[in-house]
């Protein structure tokens, strides 16, 4: 019996160690987004996309090579959470901003942590917050548009009607924290949509799948999706990436769903 107890304890310790490794690893996914609408100067443009940092302290040693490779950094919300020291958020933002321009949207945990304090730290560290706001990214003589969608106060509040501003019909990227933004929409006049929030389920069991994931997110859990095009069906919709995220929520563990960040390269081709 004691041997069985010892064996079970060893197995449990091994499983917890593995789950902690998945939660705190640095797994980079290299992605390509191809479109003939990408302007010449942005062919090969690289975006380091990170979402749902939550409580993690970023390591410059582990991120340096990817940050040096990136042209800019996009943060998809939940960059902190309630109870995290403000200096950790400041340190993380200073690290990213040291290497490249940084653009961010807020997530539900950022709002709970203290929206105004988060906004202040982003301003002080030079991070551009996109809250129902669009900016133009400039390279050489060419420009693309980045729009950030404001996170509602709770899942029971609707999104605003903001659709992003893109008067010249430029290549258009949308950054939104919660994939729920796409619910019940039928037209996506964008070229790329990036989201997070789901953590991919965080604890994903073989066969059974994610332990806790609301019905909508079972359809939009993690990975790449094709959104609908225009209602007439003549134009294809944009690619839609939902990241599994870099941090954890509630339990500091992951299973079958390792933490990830993305280095997205824009390619000017069909």
UniProtKB/TrEMBL annotation:
<dbReference type="GO" id="GO:0008758">
    <property type="term" value="F:UDP-2,3-diacylglucosamine hydrolase activity"/>
</dbReference>
<protein>
    <submittedName>
        <fullName>Metallophosphoesterase</fullName>
    </submittedName>
</protein>
<dbReference type="InterPro" id="IPR004843">
    <property type="entry name" value="Calcineurin-like_PHP"/>
</dbReference>
<dbReference type="GO" id="GO:0009245">
    <property type="term" value="P:lipid A biosynthetic process"/>
</dbReference>
<feature type="domain" description="Calcineurin-like phosphoesterase">
    <location>
        <begin position="46"/>
        <end position="200"/>
    </location>
</feature>
<dbReference type="GO" id="GO:0016020">
    <property type="term" value="C:membrane"/>
</dbReference>
<dbReference type="Pfam" id="PF00149">
    <property type="entry name" value="Metallophos"/>
</dbReference>
<dbReference type="InterPro" id="IPR051158">
    <property type="entry name" value="Metallophosphoesterase_sf"/>
</dbReference>
<dbReference type="InterPro" id="IPR029052">
    <property type="entry name" value="Metallo-depent_PP-like"/>
</dbReference>
